[in-house]
Amino acid sequence: MRKKITVVGAGNVGANCAMWIAGKELADVVLVDVVEGVPQGKGLDLLQAGPVNGYDVMITGANDYVSTADSDIVIITAGFPRKPGMSRDDLLLANYEVVKTATEQAVKYSPNSIIIVVTNPLDAMAQTAFMVSKFPKQRVIGMAGVLDTARFRTFIAQELQVSVENVTAVVLGGHGDTMVPLVRLSNVAGIPLTDLIEESRLKAIVERTQNGGAEIVKYLKTGSAYYAPSAAAVEMAESILKDKKKVLPCCAYLEGEYGIDGLYVGVPCKLGAAGLEKIYELKLTAEETAALHKSSNAVKELVAVIKSKM
Predict the structure, then answer these.
(1) CATH architecture, range 4-144
(2) DSSP assignment of 25-42
(3) Dihedral of the CA atoms 37, 40, 41, 47 (nearest 10)?
(4) Consecutive H or E run containing 181
(5) Residue in 5, 1, 27, 148 with CA at minimum distance from that of residue 71
(6) Phi and psi of 38, rounded to 5°?
(7) Which are the catalytic amino acids?
């Protein structure tokens, strides 16, 4: 029997998730959205691309969750997008209600699923899904670090005119401008970045990574990034469905790791058939630890607001 993935939200991120999933033939897809006709139309359009692109999976659209029953993975992308001048934090309360409802329905129809959260503000929304679902932490994971690391790798590769495939990068912390790109642990084919890029340029690349989402919002004006975020979520889903055991930076629930307890924060994780199978605790410098704790404190403030609403 083929695997099944539900994608909640048929906007740009959700529709592209469905497209990447189909292209990789990972699973059958159910695309869910509250707007009548949109998930059905986009699902049918993607289905009809199958003969052209050579994939053979079922893609359906729905306005309710009945057809999502027994999904292996639920990817939550639904929510209000960022607009110019709007921070991820501004989205907090509006998207809290969206993610809460989506999680309740996912749990009802797919009680054994693994939830991947993409909706912003990411860390707080992952915490929302965790608290609402009452799933073990291994089965609720946020997508952030894969995207942030991809941006960091892209900018490094551009700077050095090398293949992105040769760039290894590490980003920790919350999914926002307090994220912590770790220059010390990033490299090009094993060569430290500090041997390749002067300090002022490295600092500029780090800052561009931290503001990577806002840069795209500024260009688009009426929306936010969707190709890279959706690709990142599907890489996580692929590692889980194929039990690939990839080590990816993900938003995970920490219980003392890095000196952080009871909070979703971006850290290196092993993803396999059980979901989050291992959290890797890196040895950080005092400066890096301080930056990570500053980032986690920003997340903690958002989560406190959410808990007051529950």
Answers:
(1) 3-Layer(aba) Sandwich (3.40)
(2) T--EEEEE-SSTTHHHHH
(3) 180
(4) strand 180-181
(5) 5
(6) -65, -55
(7) 175
Indicate yes or no: pTM above 0.90: yes
Instruction: Kindly report the backbone phi and psi dihedral angles of residue 62, in degrees, each rounded to the nearest multiple of 5, phi listed first.
Output: -155, 160
**Mind listing the pLDDT tens digit of every residue in the chain (310 residues)?**
899 999 999 999 999 999 999 999 999 999 999 999 999 999 999 999 999 999 999 999 999 999 999 999 999 999 987 666 766 567 798 899 999 999 999 999 999 999 999 999 999 999 999 999 999 999 999 999 999 999 999 999 999 999 999 999 999 999 988 999 999 999 999 999 999 999 999 999 999 999 999 999 999 988 889 999 999 999 999 999 999 999 999 999 999 999 999 999 999 999 999 999 999 999 999 999 999 999 999 999 999 988 887 7
- Burial code (b: 16+ CB inside 10 Å, e: under 16) for 233-250 equals bbbbbbbbbeeeebebbb
Please report which residue ranges of the chain form alpha helices under DSSP H: 12-23, 38-48, 50-53, 92-109, 122-133, 145-160, 199-210, 212-220, 227-241, 286-309
Q: Count the Cβ atoms, other than its own, within 10 Å of residue 190.
A: 7
C-alpha pair distances (Å), 223 with each of 93, 164, 178? 18, 26, 22
3-class state of residue 163 by DSSP = coil
Which ranges in 82-198 belong to alpha helices (H)? 92-109, 122-133, 145-160
Query: Cβ distance 72 to 5 under 8 Å?
Result: yes
Burial (CB count within 10 angstroms: exposed 0-12, middle 13-18, buried 19+), residue 165: exposed
Q: Let me know: does 83 contact 110? Beta carbons within 8 Å.
A: no
Q: Tokens 């009802």 identify what position?
A: 108
Per-domain boundaries in the chain: 4-144
- C-alpha distances out from residue 271 to 141, 156, 238, Å: 10, 25, 9
